[in-house]
Amino acid sequence: MADDREIQALKDDQDLRYLSIFYYIFGALTAIFGSLFIIHIIIGAFLMLSPEAGKSQGVPSPLIGLPFVIIGSIVVISGWAFAIVQAMTGKYLKERKNHIFCMIVSAIECMMFPFGTVLGVFTIITLNRASVKELFNRDLKVSADSSNAGINNMQEAAVERPLVDEVYYVNLLSLFHYIVAALITVQVSINAVMFNVMARGMFEEFFTAGTKDAEVQQFMEFIMNIQRVFIGLFIAAGIILAILLILGGYFLKKRKNYNFCFVIAILSCLFMPLGTILGVFTIIFLTRKTVKAMFEVKPGT
Length: 301
Known about the structure:
mainly alpha; 301 residues
């Protein structure tokens, strides 16, 4: 039977591993996003090398292309650099090294709204735990095999006695599923109305300036019908996700259908930003062995 310190050490180890994984994921996404601006560099280089590019505006072509090259280069280099820093943070969190470095990066991460903000805030909260600071300050001289064996023993013992806190968090996640379902319904409705107004205004302005023949009008109607179908599908997807979230919240509270809850958590990540935040933390929570054990035992036993 593991004591409270061992169970807390298990929780800290899990949290640090999850945070490490997410820093690697965010690092890869940051590098991909930064790489998109290579297109700006290519466009800028083309404009600088094309003598015909600025003739219509009476501006030398190098002056047109230079801002594209400069801004694109800054974004690409900054994105790749921060991606490397994020990967280093993931490595240090996994190895429990450089506590101050991890704190600084997590503070910078908070500026990357909304997902970086969530990751940064929870990293700061985790790193400020006294038990986590001990892990970073401890001089570990135990071999990797014995360390892993100790963690496995703590996991087995923790499964025998689920934490009271985890029952509380299951109920809390269930409540947030209901809340986010309602918010997603509202968000979908607002976004659909805004998109419809913006698209209609854009098309009307574009075609007002052009010809008024029948083919153009027919094409405009075709585009507007596609827009209506898209908005309908968007609303339907939001409503279906909201219903699934309600079911997921119900099963979480009852501690039933573990696989269904896990799939719903993954699907909710596709609906940014509210569904993504809820889905990520539900996935993290459901992957704990103690939580899996709670689903295998009937509530009240």
